[in-house]
Specification:
Blueprint (H helix, E strand, L loop, with lengths): L5 H40 L1 H32 L13 H11 L1 H5 L7 H6 L8 H36 L14 H7 L14 H4 L14 E6 L16 E6 L2 H9 L8 E6 L7 H11 L4 E6 L7 H13 L7 E2 L2 H9 L3
Parallel strand pairs: 1-2, 1-3, 3-4, 4-5
Helix pairs in contact: 2-6
InterPro entries: DUF2868
Keywords: Membrane, Transmembrane, Transmembrane helix
Pfam family, one: DUF2868
């Protein structure tokens, strides 16, 4: 009876353990990888948001600094101040170097910078020269402009340029497969809208137009949605009969144009009783009736058709106001109806 060698079994168990450890590590790192990738994507898509927030922040700070600058100008323009440097341990050269360093950038913008003699004259005692007072005042204004207003203005311009460079607002890549479950919930391909057209036929379908006198009016026969193979036109023996057939909305509109707008025509609509008297077909019948003085419905082949279908058609036509005498089922009745004058 054979067996497994101990060294082979040990190597197999060790490999299986390593594989399990790698699988566990992968499962453990999976969420971290997803979160890291998501964070990078969010940061990438938030550049425009960062620029917008930067514009707002720098604009508010710039407004505050401009207000402070105006207050400083008002103070030095209408109030006399004495500028004095006082110290206990600092040597005079320290203040000379400090004033020179702080005044370097405002000096590039055209603001004056006190020299060493002016600085030394203001140590421990206010300067008596009026020109020295003006020099110190403009030095303070230059510092406010160079180290307060100018950096905020440059930062605001940089954010405006960045906002325009980043282009349009970030958009989600909805075509990515990761968004499919979310889109299936928030944007389903189909949704239930409920009943858009109830069973109340008489309440939603136009009624048949009121009949008018047709003495001297033309006769028209219009076939609506006839089945293929239906013999057409039928032989009715009516003189000056205008025969039309319409299986589509455009054909029906073209046929109705021949009726004119004076409503003098006698119109007979030929229908196949095998069709269902649904609301769309009944609407077409009612619409056609408003283009003629008198409208009738001829159920082709009514002599041999199913009596239940004929009864259903008569009931539905009665609901939209068609008189029973104008609902015809026999060939001879249709010919007689077209030949009548009133």
């Amino acid at each position: 009876m054979g067996g497994v060698r101990p060294d082979v079994a040990a190597r197999t168990a060790h490999a299986a353990g390593e594989g399990a450890a790698v699988a566990v590590a992968a499962r453990g790192l999976g969420p971290a990888v997803w979160l890291g990738g998501g964070a990078i994507e969010v940061l990438r898509n938030q550049r425009r948001l960062w620029a917008v927030s930067g514009v707002l922040t720098h604009a508010l700070w710039l407004a505050a600094l401009l207000g402070a600058l105006l207050a400083l100008l008002y103070a030095v323009w209408f109030t006399r101040f004495e500028f004095t440097w006082q110290t206990t341990v600092a040597p005079p050269g320290f203040f000379v170097a400090l004033v020179d360093a702080l005044g370097w950038l405002p000096g590039l913008l055209g603001f004056p910078r006190p020299d060493a003699d002016t600085v030394l004259a203001s140590l421990n005692a206010p300067a008596s020269d009026a020109a020295a007072h003006r020099l110190w005042a403009w030095w303070l204004v230059g510092i406010a402009v160079a180290y307060g207003v100018l950096p905020r203005l440059l930062a605001l311009l940089g954010c405006l340029i960045g906002m325009s460079a980043f282009g349009r607002a970030p958009r989600l890549d909805l075509a990515h497969a990761d968004w499919a479950p979310v889109l299936a919930r928030v944007q389903p391909a189909t949704h239930r809208t409920g009943v858009s057209d109830g069973d109340g036929t008489a309440s939603v379908i136009d009624h048949i137009a009121t009949p008018r006198d047709t003495l001297g009016g033309p006769r028209h026969l219009l076939g609506l949605e006839l089945h293929p193979g239906t013999p057409w036109p039928p032989a009715l023996g009516v003189a000056d009969l205008h025969v039309h057939q319409a299986d589509a909305h455009a054909e029906r509109e073209a046929a109705l144009k021949h009726l004119g707008d004076e409503r003098r025509a006698r119109l007979l609509l030929a229908l196949d009783p095998r069709n269902t008297p649904d609301r769309g077909l009944l609407r077409s019948i009612a619409e056609c009736s408003h283009r003629a003085a008198r409208t009738g419905v001829w159920l082709l082949g009514g002599d041999t058709a199913n009596p239940e279908r004929i009864a259903l058609w008569r009931e539905r036509l009665g609901e939209i106001g068609l008189p029973e005498r104008d609902c015809l089922a026999r060939h001879n009745d249709a010919a007689r109806w077209l030949a009548e004058d009133a």
